[in-house]
Amino acid sequence: MFLGFVTLFIIYLLHKYITAWIRYYNQTDERFGNSIWRWSYDYQVKGVRDISDLDDKEFVKKRRIRNRTVSFMYWNFFIGFTVSMYLISDVLMFILSN
Q: Distance between CA 98 and CA 94 in Å, rounded?
């Protein structure tokens, strides 16, 4: 049970770190907006490169990095959800065993 609390705390700190990076990238260009939970508004084209890469290379690089960071945040969030379910089941087993 203690290991679950420690793991959940580490995941929380990692989540705060990832969202800080997303906020940082949101501030670098106003086209990103203020959303933390969404990928960027400019959708990517399937294939090797984006069509918008011809127009604004720096924005496309930032967008790809930001979208990757948002994906890491989702992975971290769902791993945290799984760990929290494990922790809740441990707490319930501890309560019901007494």
A: 7
pTM of the model: 0.79
Domain ranges of the chain: 2-41+51-97
43 backbone dihedrals φ, ψ, rounded to 5°: -80, 145
d(CA 39, CA 10): 24
Q: Over the stretch 41-81, which tens digit does the pLDDT of each residue have?
A: 655 555 555 555 666 778 888 888 999 999 999 999 999 99
User: How buried is 72 (Cβ within 10 angstroms: 0-12 exposed, 13-18 middle, 19+ buried)?
Assistant: middle
Q: Distance from CA of residue 61 to its chain's centroid?
A: 18
Under 8 Å between Cβ of 4 and 85: no
